[in-house]
Each structure stands twice: as C-alpha cells, then as structure tokens.
TrEMBL record:
<feature type="signal peptide">
    <location>
        <begin position="1"/>
        <end position="20"/>
    </location>
</feature>
<dbReference type="Pfam" id="PF09084">
    <property type="entry name" value="NMT1"/>
</dbReference>
<keyword id="KW-0732">Signal</keyword>
<feature type="domain" description="SsuA/THI5-like">
    <location>
        <begin position="136"/>
        <end position="278"/>
    </location>
</feature>
<protein>
    <submittedName>
        <fullName>ABC transporter substrate-binding protein</fullName>
    </submittedName>
</protein>
<dbReference type="InterPro" id="IPR015168">
    <property type="entry name" value="SsuA/THI5"/>
</dbReference>
Amino acid sequence: MRGPARLRWAAAAAVLPVLAGCTVAGNAAGGGGDAVRVVIGYQSKTINTVTAGTLLRTLGLFEKRLAALGKAEDRTYTVVWQDYDTGAPITAQMLAGKIDIGSMGDYPLLINGSRAQAQGGDALTEMVATTGYNLRGSLNGVVVANGSKARTLRDLKGESVSASVGSAGHGTLVQALQRYGLDPAKDVKVENQQPTVGTSALQSGGVAGLAQFVAWPGLLVNRGQARLLYDGGDLNVPTFHGTVVRKTYAKQSPAVLREFLKAQIEATAYLHKEPMKAAESVASTTGLPAETVYLYNGAGGVATFDTTIKKPLRDAHAQDVPFLKSIGVLQQPLDLSTFVNESYLREAYGAGYDRDAASTANPAAIKGEDRVCRRQVDDAATAGEVWVSGEAATRPVADPVCLLRNVRAVQAEGKTVRAVYAPDAVTGTRWFADKEIWVEDPSAKAEQRFKPFATQEGADKYIAAHSGAKVVPYADAVRRS
C-alpha cells in the first residue's frame, strides 16, 4: 500500500478498526518516457476480485508478463494500479478512457455495460472473465449490531439500512425484502453509503442494519462488531465478480489483454495451491484480518475462484437486468450478447476451457484426513477447517461434530485456535464456527447431534421443526461433543 493510501487507512482505522478505501489518481494516456501505461482499476478489499487485483498485483505476475511482451516488441510497459471501494468509480473512469481494465461485482458490471453502451463509441466495454462466484449468493449479506433484537429481515421494517445503491449487497437486500413481503421503497429506509460510512453508522446506531458485499459481513462478524442477520445464500441466486475491459483498448492492445488474463489465470492457480499464503498476502496488503480473507478465499471458501464464464452466471446476469431496471438502478438498455465476450479468455486459457466452464465444482475443495475422527474429508457439504496458530496449514475436519472434537483436541494440546470454519447445517454457507448458532438435537445420531447455523433465523426454523432441539453455547458444544 502506498504512502497516501496507508495514511488514509491509518486515519480511518483510528476511528474504527475496519476497512477503509484508498484511491490512486491516474490517467491512461501519457506517462514517463516512452513507457506504455496500462491502467488497472481494482477494489483491494473486495476480496472476491483478488485474482484480478490485490493478489495479482502483489505477485507481480502481470508485470512479469508485460516485461516479456515488451522485450519482444522492443517497448516498455508500466502498470498503474488504481484502488477503489466499489465498482462505480471504476466504471466512471473507464467511460472517461482513464482505466483500461477493471474488476467489479455482477450488478456493477451490468451498470458498467449499460452506461457504456448508452455512451457508445470508445466508451464501450466488455466483460471478459470471472474472478470468483457463489452459486447461492452467499457473498452478500445483511448484518446487525450484536445487541439488535432482530431475528429475521422482517424485523427491520420501519428501520434504516445502509447499502451502496447499485451494488450486489443492495440488490440482495431489495430482493430479500420482497421475498418477505416488504416494500423496499416504503418499509425500510435505504441509506446510500459507502461501506466504511455504513459500518460507522451501524456501530453508532445510526442504522439498524448494513447490507454489503464480500468481505464486509464476514469482517464485522469476525471482529465481534456485528452478527449475520440474513445470508444472501437464502436467495439461491448466483453472485459473482468479473473482469471488464474497454472494447477499444482490447482491439488496440489484444496482446496486453491476453497477458493480463493469463496472469489472472496464474493468480487463480496460486490461490488454489497456496490458499493460506494467498490469504496472508491479501491480509498484509489490505489490513484485513487473514481469518476473514480465508473465510471467503480459502479452501472450500465462500467464493469459488474460476476465470471461466459459466452458464449459471450468464443466466443470473440475464435475470438481473429486468430486476435492476425495476428498482431504477439500470436506466439504459443493455445488450448482454455484445457485453459478455469470452473469446479473449478462450485464447488465453487454451485447451480445457469448455470442460472447466461447464464445471461448478470448487477447484479448491477441503481435502485430507480428519486426525481426530480418523476419516477422509471428502464431503464439501459438511467439511470444515480448524486454523491452529503457528501451524503451516489448516486442519481439515469431516463434519461439524468432528470440528467440535478437533477444537477440543487443540485445546487439550495447549495450542490456540486462530479461526474455525463450518458450513451452515442447511444452506452449506461457510461461516466462523465460533460465531454460528449451535443447536443440539437429542433425536439425531451422536455424530450429528450438534448443528451450526450462520443466522438466528436458520436455527429458529430448525428448532421449530425438531422437537427437543435447542440452542447451546459454542463452548458447551465443544466441551460435550
């Protein structure tokens, strides 16, 4: 992080120990000497885009490829990285011709394409790759203060909720409210705020809830500053982030775009091979806790990282267009058939593209042997992890009860648990196990007696359907597992 950005981060952290934004001014035209500038717009702390942003930048993979390309072409390339909190300013800079390649979430991508097509000419843009996705939508969520009495989203009726209008987090809030029979325009007051501002408002009591995208829900819960009220995965609508390029730039500099996409593919492979190192790297660069980064980006994480543009994601985009129009966020028409262009990625990816594009299996699934339950970890629906301080890799666990037993074993060893991750018993959403609501079901088999839920609502529904089931403190569940 550069000097001015670090100062802004430090100033924000002095007020509240959470995320802060930083922006580096830049211009795609001109530059020092004869160097050809390539300007990349990214969101360092939107960790579902790290393979096209933070991690890619830290690894220097794009610069290495441009150095080789420049040597072959007898020219010098220089990369300018511009960091933003959300996708909106990246879009504005792209339309002005000041950013060449960017990354952002699914809703901002649609707004990007819509505004670009409305402006036409050199402003046209194309989505050319995916960074990461979650097929159920669990990258977004609504959190409330720990002391809030709200148990479901319906309990926020008549309250103010902070959201970045036009973001994926905002879209999740609107769709979820509608499913609860609430009118998003009348039954709640949406405060259009940047994530940092909304976080401060939640802490001060200025708003009753915060609806945001990755990594904000996980960050605040991990910090002990909020609890998850609504899991975006309940919508069962895919959410994702992707790479976008100015169409004119792609035509004028196809070799540069190809090298960027190849570098993104390499960064994705690195994240799969070294998930803990990648999480630590992103944490070091952004100031985010590594435990939060790993929740989303680690093995079996909430985000599945895959550059290919998959049909479920295309279909989700097609369904999102009328929705965004209905809430007034998408004001210009959008032709998705010309906006989404995977031809550049196909060339960079090579053989196997169609095979990998057709698969939705997580390339970084949790695997290994559960050392306590003495079982192979092979079921993504139940697998979890225990991160022990000082150990080079997490300990894979087969299921929630085995997870509790592994935590107890670590405690018996006199070691410290740094983080522990378990999937929601019903939705499968990966969450911090020590922040989940644990339910004991006496009627279940011993190996299934304790069940974790990411939200209070999920736990309440299970208890209502299972006589004798009750909430138990996490520590008690560990002790009695």
